[in-house]
Amino acid sequence: MSLGSNNPLWAVIAYALAITTSALLLRFFPRLQRSVQHTGQQRFSSVDGLRGYLAFGVFVHHTAITWIYLHTRVFDVPKNYFYAQIGLASVALFFMITGFLFWGRLIKHGRHHDWLAFAVSRIFRLYPLYLPLLLVVILCVFYLQGWTFEDEPLVVAKQVLAWLVFDRPDINQYPQTGMLISNVTWTLSYEVFFYLALPLFGMVFVYRKNWKQAVLCLLGIYALYQVVGWEHSLKKHILMSFLGGIAAAYWVRRPQWVAWGQTRLAACIALMLLVVVLFMFRKSFATAPLLLLTAFFCIVASGNTLFGALTLRSIRWMGEISYSTYLLHGLLIWLLMHRLPVVMQWDIQQPLVFVALAAVASSLLIVISSLTFLFIEQPGMLAGKKTVRWLRQHTPLKTTQSVKDDA
């Protein structure tokens, strides 16, 4: 079996290494076990388990892209449907998870939604890990350029500011700076747009008052789309994936639908739909695959564990660390598969060398993500909760209901 065969078995091996690493970490570190127990008690634990598969799927996708680049010097989506979709479909499902969780909270709490906690928690969820990553990217750029300024310092400062809002201009004229992290931050632009637009969507569809308010909110959403789109070129067909999560938020409020969604038949249908998307479509952000992924996600959101695949302790932990996995895997790929072979004078185009490094990356990614979750993400989320309490104590604004927000 050659790497050029695009055999899904390579992905299966990578997942096996990651899951094994996660299981070993859980076995020998009790602190991780406590986090997994907490995750398993949540209402949508199947969704949390799904995150683990999705984040690692994006890593597999970018590893395949790296193999293509090493032989063609072109960064391109794999022509093989499976290795293209394992990343694209994972991102689409991530957007559905966002739509599902936050729209569900909007439906549940209505006018009592705690927008202060929501806003603060999103900032402290995204940035505590992103800022150190950005610092590493800047250091790598200047190291590769001999610690010299190719642009004026003020210009470099503007480039860094653009990165702070998840744009990815070249820093200090280093070509394709975003490829140091596989350009993964493009999805955060869509997440941020959804967060900013959520109050306006809520006033239109959840706690509407009158038609004038609805019109003003829709105009506000359009203006926000244009403002965010100036830098990030938001695409409507990608934004459609959030609708799948919103549909699931209504699905889980129908007891009869949830009951069916938890059956073995539903699990078989969900897996069949996923296989169809992975092997029969090249794109995920199109009407047909998004509808199939929405049906798949509704079944998972119902609490279906897909025959236990979503409730494995190792997978639940991978779901817990999914943001670290997603955000850091591009840098790890760049270090191991672009820089290390240069330093060690290895021929990375040789299949055995590439496979060996990919195997190391599969396990190392879980270890690094576990560390960054424990020492950066968790403290960041805790700081966000403390900030909310401080703001409530020092501002006259009061909310009638506190909303737990730790997604």
UniProtKB/TrEMBL annotation:
Matching Pfam families: Acyl_transf_3
Protein keywords: Acyltransferase, Membrane, Transferase, Transmembrane, Transmembrane helix
Acyltransferase domain mapped to chain residues: 45-368
Descriptive protein name: Acyltransferase
GO molecular function annotation: acyltransferase activity
InterPro entries for the chain: Acyl_transf_3_dom, Acyltransferase_3
Segments traversing the membrane: 12-29, 50-70, 82-103, 124-144, 188-207, 214-230, 264-281, 287-309, 321-340, 352-376
Residue ranges of coiled coil: none
